[in-house]
Amino acid sequence: MALNVSVVSAERQVWAGEASQVIAKTVEGEIGILSGHEPLLALLAKGEVRVTTAGGDKVAVEAEGGFLSVDHDTITIVAGNATVA
Q1: Distance CA 21, CA 80 (A)
Q2: Which of 17, 24, 53, 58 is most buried as measured by Cβ atoms within 10 A of its Cβ?
Q3: How many beta carbons lie within 10 A of that of residue 59, not counting itself?
Q4: What is the chain's Cα-based Rg?
Q5: Is the pTM of this model over 0.90?
Q6: Pick from 41, 38, 37: nearest CA to 26
Q7: DSSP conformational letter for 10
Q8: Residue 38, helix vs strand vs coil
């Protein structure tokens, strides 16, 4: 199963699509998320969010502040500032 991922900043949606894996930097350390992950809410640290799309492509997003939410293979990343690297 694919993950449905949405990355938004305060101004706009930065990236959205299906992914096989997401790796993000939280205030407690780096976390990797695959399909079937337990529900989670985490505070983002400044750093790179790495998305591997369902097709195998890599997308890197620089994110600063905000949070990451995981629920039923849906990942929502809300950052104060985010840009595709």
Answers
A1: 22
A2: 24
A3: 18
A4: 11
A5: yes
A6: 41
A7: S
A8: coil
